[in-house]
Amino acid sequence: MRLAAGAISVRFGRTPALRDVTLEVPSGTVLALVGANGSGKSTLLRVLAGLQPHDGRVAWDTAHGNGRIGYMPQETALRPALTAFEVVLLGRMRELRLRVASRDLDAAEAAMAELGVEHLASRRIGTLSGGQRQLVLLAQVLAADPSVLLLDEPTSALDIAHQLRLLARLKAMTCARGLTTIATLHDLNAAARFADRLALLHQGRLLGCGSPDAILRPELLRQAFGVEAAVETWRDGHPLVLPLRAAAQDETGGG
Predict the structure, then answer these.
(1) Are residues 43 and 156 in the same domain?
(2) Cβ-Cβ contacts under 8 Å for 146 (sequence gap 6 or more)
(3) Which terminus of the chain has a smaller tally of CB atoms within 10 A, N or C?
(4) Mean per-residue pLDDT for 82-92?
(5) pTM
(6) Cα(231)–Cα(196) distance, integer angstroms
(7) Do 62 and 4 share a structural domain?
């Protein structure tokens, strides 16, 4: 589903968390939200998921897609005695029941297989590693067959190989199914490689939204992250960010 968000602003008490953010994201696109800690990435995801009161407008074009939005926060409270399969099944229903429709069982199995975690189906969620738990929770989101994926740090607990596999899978799913995928990522090079567009946030403001080449520029990185960085072009054509040193405070507006 196409997203059109205009003039989004959020305040927590007297503190602004988002300031007049405007975004447009077409279907079939992976958008990575990048920026320093506290820049507003997670708050923006909650706004887009309909979970955070805000000023401004969020419009999803449901002409393309089923209207379902899948949201995965950074942390989810779960009963540790639930099996991984039961956790994924909760993506299809509000509570577990004795009788479950075969279509719901099939969807849960397919979602786990898609992420390669079907072998964890009978394991208690409380016994899984952080990375395994993260993949199971993403399978829960996928089981609902959403048209939109809103993912808050979906790779934070994964090792490098699993990060690459997951991001490649998300990109392939987004393209094949015409999804709209918006994910917060801290790894700028991973974002540059797998996202079609980057949205760079700084202190609640959108510094820019565009191709990785357009956003990963030394002056924008200095402003957003307070670092001096070189940006090279990798042999596959993607930009490669090489952090060099912390920028002086007067170069970043830090006082």
Answers:
(1) yes
(2) 66, 68, 69, 70, 179
(3) C
(4) 96
(5) 0.93
(6) 18
(7) yes
Residues 15, 129 within the same domain: no
Q: What is the Cα–Cα distance from 99 to 22, expressed in whole angstroms?
A: 45
- What does the DSSP 8-state code read for residue 154? T
Q: Residue range 88-98: average pLDDT? A: 84
CB 27 within 8 A of CB 179: yes
The pLDDT value given to residue 250: 58
> What is the DSSP secondary structure assignment for residue 120, as one 8-state letter?
G
Q: Cα 194 to the chain's mean position, in Å?
A: 12
Using pLDDT thresholds of 50, 70 and 90, give the confidence band for residue 255.
very low
Place of tokens 């205009």: 6
In a domain, 120, yes or no: yes
In whole angstroms, what is the distance from residue 232 CA to residue 49 CA?
35
Same domain, 159 and 192: yes
* Whether the predicted pLDDT of 39 surpasses 90: yes
Residue where the block lists tokens 């993949």: 135
Contacts made by residues 218-221, CB under 8 angstroms, sequence distance 24+: 221/188
Count structural domains, the chain: 2
**Does residue 151 sit in the same domain as residue 216?**
yes
Domain that holds residue 64: 1-68+146-225
